[in-house]
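[recover] target loaded
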């Protein structure tokens, strides 16, 4: 009760002196409420790890900034993926979902010479997909042109751009050969399941599979990841979850 009273007292004080700041308080409360409201989107059940525990003090990663580009990974998520590359001594990476090429760039930048990122996105001339993509905003992104356009020219020798619907993509040439798989294509339950199953069969034993958007605003990703055993681990402060094979 004391806590409730002091909270209400603070709210009243903010309302009197800085009413505009109430947006910050209610915005934060709303984000937490969103995360807790629906059990299927609640991410508190996932084990989590601090970024500092997947890297070491002497690690040096290279990141490129892409100001103003949305629907892409954050710098911390890029650094976490770079830490996986270093930890695994990764040479072969498979990515579902290229979009403009932000994550592809961070992956390629941190790969040693001779390494390769295979990145998959829908064909530009015929961006049809077989399974359902539930969010309208995602369907728009799927049909945008200019996929991979931000991948710098000097990194292109480290990138193989594959164009196909992941639901019909044939993994046969890649089975068991990838050190790292990054799943960031369509975010519907059926697509995350499809991409995970295909990613898993392309992953070598001891490799890491990581998913983007394990966050309440993508409840179908959360819901699918909860159905998996073992449950993926979240990198704290990010929407990145991962499992080692
Ligand atoms: C969120 S964006 C990827 C963002 C990117 N990984 C980054 O961080 O910069 C998702 C991408 O997945 C692609 N995509 C959606 N459905 C797909 C499918 N069925 N097969 C392959 N790619 C798909 C979309 O065209 C879009 O470019």
């Amino acid at each position: 009760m004391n806590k409730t009273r002091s909270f209400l007292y603070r709210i009243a004080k903010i309302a009197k002196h800085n009413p505009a700041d109430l947006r910050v308080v209610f915005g934060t409360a709303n984000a937490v409420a969103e995360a807790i409201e629906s059990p299927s989107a609640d991410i508190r059940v996932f084990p989590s790890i601090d970024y500092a525990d997947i890297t070491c003090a002497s690690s040096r990663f290279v990141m490129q900034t892409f100001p103003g580009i949305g629907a892409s990974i954050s710098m911390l998520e890029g650094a976490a993926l770079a830490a996986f590359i270093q930890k695994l001594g990764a040479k072969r990476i498979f990515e579902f979902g290229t979009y403009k090429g932000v994550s592809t760039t961070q992956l390629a930048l941190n790969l040693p010479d001779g390494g390769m990122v295979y990145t998959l996105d829908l064909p530009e001339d015929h961006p049809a997909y077989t399974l359902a993509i539930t969010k309208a905003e995602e369907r728009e992104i799927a049909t945008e042109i200019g996929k991979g356009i931000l991948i710098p020219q000097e990194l292109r020798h480290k990138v193989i751009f594959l164009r196909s619907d992941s639901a019909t993509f044939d993994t046969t040439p890649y089975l068991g050969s990838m050190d790292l798989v990054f799943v960031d294509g369509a975010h519907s339950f059926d697509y995350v399941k499809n991409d995970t199953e295909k990613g898993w069969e392309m992953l070598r034993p001891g490799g890491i599979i990581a998913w983007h958007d394990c966050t309440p605003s993508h409840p179908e990703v959360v819901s699918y990841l909860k159905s998996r055993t073992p449950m993926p681990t979240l990198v704290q402060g990010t929407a990145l979850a991962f499992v080692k094979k």
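[recover] notes: The beta strands are 48-49, 92-96, 116-121, 159-163, 178-183, 203-211, 233-235, 241-244.
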